[in-house]
Fold:
Amino acid sequence: MNKDLPGWVDFGLLPLLNLLTAFLVAGIVVLAIGENPLEAVRHILYGAFGYGNGVGYTLFYTTNFIFTGLAVAVAFHASQFNIGGEGQAYLGGLGVGLACLMLDQYLPWWGILPVAILLGASFGAIWGAIPGILYAKRGAHVVITTIMFNFISFSLMNYIINEYLKMPGNASVQSRTFEQSAWMPKLTWLEGVMPGISTSPANLSFVIALIACVFVYILIWRTKFGYEVRVYGASPSAARYAGISTTRVVVLTMAISGGLAGLMGLNPVMGDQTRIFLDIPQQAGFVGIAVALMGRSHPLWIVFAALLFGTLYQGGAELAFEMPSITRDMVVVIQGLVILFAGAMEFMFRPWVARAFSMREQENG
Amino acid sequence: MGDFIPDLSTVVALTDGTLRGATPLLLACLAGLYSERSGVFDIGLEGKILIAAFAGATVGILTGSALIAVLAAIAASTLFALIHGVACITFRGNQIVSGVAINFLALGLAAVAGNAIFSMGGRTPQLPASARLNGGDSWFTPMLEGMGRYGQAVEDIAFDQSIFVYIAFAAVPFTWWVLYRTRFGMRLRAVGENPAAVDTAGISVTGLRYRAVICAGVLCGLSGATLSMALNSGYINNMGAGRGFIALAALIFAKWRPVQAMFACLLFAFLNASESRLQGTEVLGFEIPVQLVQAMPYLLVVILLAGFIGQARAPKAGGVPYVKER
Structure:
């Protein structure tokens, strides 16, 4: 069972097998509904990549999932399970929105952006750091506290928007719309390659998300702090023995994790809706868990995993339109299956693969 | 500040609302208790509630029989509990990841299957009256109604409830008895604290944990059936509305003990029932926002976990897959 296998099996073959199983089961669900799974895949791919507006939406969702996936991944490296991406992204959205509301009369978007990034990241970071502190100082499990913090954030944001940000005389629960000069630019420079993309909500946040990937790569694998995080993640007692401050590692890692989730707020708040509104993250915090698991907590794979889920979210809308018997919730099913097979049951095929390998070795040796 | 002595009808309405609201919470909370005391963390309570609520409503509509519907709800929830068991016990996967997966899978499948069967955008039609279990006149009704308004109050609170209310509150002493007075209960608690010792005694850790997970499935099934067959009439998308997580909060708040779990669930249900009444109330010149009341269960758990109200210690072996020594 614990036999050593070559790296390409553990990091290539097994995850691929798990993923295929997840999609196979999803296909069976589609079959059970009485539709053709391959036809469904065709609709999803067309919806996600067939035309400029669709591609834009795919990139828009992908942007959200890169941020939240990175957030979960960073925490994973310190063996912390941050389920609170949803709440951290919500608070981050508040930070981004406040920056815009305060400055949109005076500054253009590129002047506001640094402040928005700072406020969004710090709001998310605070929301992530508190569970970190509670774990490091009090031993409260991060899983439980981050779940609770998600719910607390829903109530808190509901209160803040209703009491302080809502426009008087307007029935909808949202802040005023930012001045147009404060809006994050759309990806118009891609219009030549992909006509129609500027009609979608895809915006510059996508580029910021890619920069965040590079940041996470450098942080985790190229800095002293990243090394400490990985040591702690592998063995907290070894880290303590090596003189690493475990409190510092946990709290900072959770703060960075929350900050990354908080940056997600840029995309919907500054890039799309251009106001603060209810339910900013729209489940992206939870999708981040699937993305991080599939991406094996590595920024490069996270981009691809986020793109896969972006494709499913956008393509799922097309699918629901083309096949009315299948709703967009099919994406949630696939999400669950991916988390189940690529996450919880990740070792399922390992004994069989290990047996196949030892048999081959015997034949060769 | 208004006067603090509420009239009889308010008391009846509040008590009734608290009992009804506490029922699904309590059933799910006890479900979590069995699972977690055996060392299997369960954040998939919400998912099991959802799939049970959906299965109960769907089968209730298709067969018109409340009994078959409840059995279907229990079966669906237990199936999901077994998926959790296979992932966590047999394949030694991460229990948190598996719980998250269960939640998504149930939420998605209920909506997809509901739309495929009824084409109503993921919800089901109304349950026929024969498949509802929302209480009604009991054997005592004529007698109590003859006893004036206090008799009527007793009738409304104690005898007019759905059967799930009685099951839930009977499950509390039963769980206490199982946990502290039976061999199974003792082993269950032992396997959550020190599975190696249980294994050494020649008792199957895997078998015990599977049984615990099945108990959780059955109880979550009843919790879901309460939602779609008693409190509501049919399934609505995501109708659990976070109850599985409030139940989890109650479980931690009760420090994984059954009687305390009941009080925690009653407290959270009372807060929920009095939400609308508390709105706009002023305490020391400060108006209580309704959102604060909504967030109260979660806040209380965080405060508890921060160590301000005693210490909550989870079962020691919780979250750790057991690897038999060879």
